[in-house]
Each structure stands twice: as C-alpha cells, then as structure tokens.
Description:
Elements: H1 11-22, H2 24-37, H3 46-69, H4 75-91, H5 95-116, H6 122-156, H7 158-171, H8 177-186, E1 195-202, H9 212-223, E2 230-233, E3 236-242, H10 249-256, E4 258-263, H11 271-284, H12 298-307, H13 315-323, H14 332-344, H15 347-354, H16 358-372, H17 379-394
Antiparallel strand pairs: 1-3, 1-4, 2-3
Helix pairs in contact: 1-3, 2-3, 2-5, 3-6, 4-6, 5-6, 11-12, 13-17, 14-15, 14-16, 15-16
Amino acid sequence: MFGCDYHPVTKTRERIRRELTADPRLVQAVVDAVHDRVPAYADLDGERLLEVRAIAGWAVERLLHLWAVDDTVGPDELRRFRGIAAARAADGRPLQAVLRAYRVAAAVLVDEVAARAPRSAAADAFALTRHVLATLDALSEAMAGAYTATSEQLAGDRARALRLLLDDLIAGRHASAGAAADRAARLGVQLPAPYCLLAAEPDGCPGAALPQETALDLLAALAGDATPLVTAHGRRAVLLLPAASARTVAPVLRERGWRGCAIQGEGLDRVAVAHRLADGALDAAPPHARRPGRLLTDADAHVLALLGGHPAAAPDRIAHLVLGPLTEPDHRHLLAALTAYLDTGSATAAARTLHLHPQSLRYRLRRARELTGLDERDPWERLMLDIARTVGARA
C-alpha cells in the first residue's frame, strides 16, 4: 500500500510498541485530546465515552502493531472502520468530526512514540509517519463510503431520519448549529429559530415507555405539519416547535391530562442544554409546582436546577427569567412592594413597611403579577419569586 522502501522490524519499534500498549495513559491521552479538541465529542459521557475509549484502544494497538512489523492496514481493519462509519452515520455524528478525531488521536500517538524513541531513530519515526498517513488515507476512503451509504439509506426513511436528527440535537451529537441546520435542510425542513423545546408526558404514568405514534399525535395537535421534529424519549415526548407554538402548549396538555416543560431561552447550539433543563424540571418539580394545567417554563427549570445543585445559569439570569421586567429600573417600586410582601407575609404589613396605603400596595402586587406571570400567593410561585429576588440581590 505504501509504495515505499521496506523497513525491517527493529528492536526499537517493538520495545516502544510494548511500552505504549502496556501503558493505559496512552489511550486516556487520546480520549482526552479528542474530547477537548473536537466539538462533536465534547459532550460525550457514559456508554458513548466508553465506546470511544474502546475504539481508541483498538486503533492504537493495531497501528502500533502495523508499524512494528512494517505491515499495511488489511481487510479486517477496513471492515471494522466501515462498521464504525455506518454507526456514526446512524447516530448523526458528522463524518468530518469523526475523521478529525482520528487525526487528533494520530498526533497524540506520534508524540508519545517520539518521546520514547532514541534521537537517532529517524528511520523509525519517518516510518511511523508514513504508516499514520497511509492508514488515515485508507480508513478515510472506507469510512466515507460506508457513511454515505448509511446516510442515503436513512434519508430514504425520512420520518426516521427526522427523529434521529432530534435525537442527536437533544444528545448534543452535532458539530455546530450550522451543521445541524445543513442536515435539516437536506431532509427538507428548517430548524425553528427561535424555538420552543417541549418535554411532556402523560400524568400518572411513571416508567412506561411512550410510543412514537403518541408523540407524533401530540405534535399534530400542537403544530400541524409546520415542524415534524418529534421523538419519544423514554416515557416522554420531546418536540422542537416554533416559538410561536408555545402559546398553544398549555391548553393542549391540559386537555390530554399531560404535564410538560417548555424551554424557550436557549439557542440552536444549546438544544441539548434545553432538553436537560426540561427533563430535569419534570423529574424534580414537586406536585404543587406541576398542578394540572400549569406548564413549567425556563424560570421553573432554572430554579429547580439551582435547588438541585446543578445551576445552568448565572444568578442574574435566574433573576431575569423569574422577575422579568421587575429587574428594570422603571419597576423598582414594584420589586420593592413584592420584596416587602415576601418578607412580611401580608399586604397590610408590607404596606406599613413601605409607608403605603394597603390598596396602593395591593395594586403594585397586582402589577407585578401581570408583568411576571407569577402569583405571589401561590406556594410554588412564591418560592420562585423569593429565590429570584434573593440571588438577584447577591449577583
């Protein structure tokens, strides 16, 4: 394959091969480099990270063996790389990101070999470089063909391809918002911007997996054919809707006896973050926060994340999400009225604190209710308001 002079097996290569394959830090260094330098791999965790580590370990071992015995990549290796490419096409990880991951891994491997090789072993170093370049060339050809074939097959099943697109968006398996938009365009849809990510589930059905048909039925009720991006994720339906559709969500869920969380404050590059917020809110919300007919929002999700020790936003953003216009200078008097009420527990006592007539205090509380959409008399919403004004004051 290489079309170059034959290099006999050397004791130096075999020694270095043994040292590196016995050192678990090499594979970890490869995985860390890919995780740090390739955006599509930045959010990998759990089983996907274990898979990357397993592939890295196998690829490093095979490349070092080929270098040590001066052999070329064979049909068995190429067959496995074609299988890896097909899997990446199925899970939506961009081919360019996969190939870049291999280039990053190869650079780490070359550096590790160089650190262990004698300075005089130039021939061995050049041989390794030739093996790396030739192997990358061969696997690129094999993986590109398999990736394209699998992608075309998936595109033939458009409904499945659209579901996989949303699955990849909510899992963070895309190189960038632009790459996701390009993929959507190839499937004949446009990602909504701004969007509303909705996670919803039938109330009172914990643990039961939700059929895809049920998720599609919910989408039809909410958006018709405007945005066919929906997937069943465990017991929940996840939908990516145009932001304008958000106003129809609460009544539709109430009619069906469902509960949900709608996130609207994240960009297309943070769909995975929006999904984690919505999923976490539905898991953590107490019963009085998700009473029938009440849709959880960004504000609920961020407050619940903060209470759970997983804040996804800075305190000043939480204050803005919950208090809204009350954070503006023109409405400081309304925030002062709300703060006094939260501190004292009654409109009469709050009025005395601010030297106001009780009716004036009640009017300001009513205006604060209108501007925030939250009722300070409701136990959950009162807690949200109290947390927001507290963290906002400290920001």
